[in-house]
Amino acid sequence: MTAEADELYSLLVPLSGDRLIVPRACVAEVVRFTEPEHEAGTLSWMMGNVNWNGRPLPVVSFEGALGHEVPVATGRTRIVVFYASTGQLKNGYFGVLTQGFPQLVRVNKDVLKFDSKDGWPEDAPVLCRVRMINEYPLIPDLEKLEATLARESVQA
Fold it and tell me: What's the CATH number for 9-155?
């Protein structure tokens, strides 16, 4: 295998006090923040829907999903649009609030090491925390997040 095949283009997504690391291929687009229309009866960290390319895009606060306070939107707040990979969401996409622009990084087995599976609620959409040189980003469980969104949107 070549060195390029052993590397994965990823995005470091800034949160309030933390970061996510996700494969670049999971992200459709990063868009400016617009205030979501909140749906009554959903979890507090589910911000509601925004209009994205003429379709409703459900948006969540990852901090809220971890049991933390939902951050206040600022001029740097953006929405990272993820592909919905399990087919549970009708529109095929969902958004996560970010506190700035994601940073493109290339990772490989030499720079990315397992760190922890603890430190967040059991039902949080997190697979683990990793160590990447001097960063300790979370790897989100995007399938779990998508399933929760699909379940809650049916109940709302």
Answer: 2.40.50.180
